[in-house]
Amino acid sequence: MTDATAEQSVTADADDKPEPYNGLPGAFPYAFRATDSLLFKAYVPVALLLSVAITLVFSFGLITQLAETGSVRGGTFTFSRSFFLFIGLLLVAPLLAPVLSVARRHRRTGSSVAYDRALAVSAFLFIGSIYLALLTSAPAELREPTQSAVVGFFYSLPPIAGVAPPLLATVLMYLTHRLLK
C-alpha cells in the first residue's frame, strides 16, 4: 500500500466518525452546524447570549451579596449565597439543555428536523416563561402602571406564583424531548 492510499484510507476513516464537540463550548457551534431546523438555528445564539447574560447578572449579584455579608459568619448568609447560585443554575440549565441534547443526538444517532424544531419551540416558551416569572415576582415599587390586562393579571398574582411558568415550561421541554426521542 502506498503512502497516498494509506492517507486516503485514514481520511476516509476520519470522515466516518462524528465530529466531536468537546463539551459545552463546542456544543453550540456543533448543534448550529448539525441541525437542519432554521428555528433551532435561531435558538442557538439566543440561548448563548441569554446564558451568558444570566450568568453575568448572577455573578455580579453574588459578588454584591458577598460584599454586603462578608463580615458575617456562616449560618443563614451561607445558605442564601448557595441558594442564590442554585437559582441561577435553575435558570441557565434549561437554556443549555436543548443545545446539548440536539448536539448529542446528532453526534450519536442522528436527529430529525421535527425533534430539533419541537425542542426549539419548547425552549423559546421557556424564555417567555422567564419573562412571566419576572412580571409576577417584581416588587411593587418597581412595577410600572399599565393599561394591559395581561400584565395587570400577572402583577396581581402573589410573587411565589412566579415559580410556576418556568417550572411548567421546563416540564414541557422535558416531555417534548421524551416524546420525540
UniProtKB/TrEMBL annotation:
Bias (Polar residues) occurs at 1-11
Q: Which InterPro entries match?
A: DUF8056 (IPR058369)
The answer, when asked if Transmembrane helix is one of the entry's keywords, is yes
Record-linked Pfam families: DUF8056 (PF26243)
Q: Where are the transmembrane segments?
A: 42-63, 83-103, 115-134, 154-175
Give the keywords, sorted: Membrane, Transmembrane, Transmembrane helix
Q: Where is this region: Disordered?
A: 1-20
Domain DUF8056: from-to ranges:
19-180
Q: What is this protein called?
A: DUF8056 domain-containing protein
The beginning of the lineage is: Archaea, Methanobacteriati, Methanobacteriota, Stenosarchaea group, Halobacteria
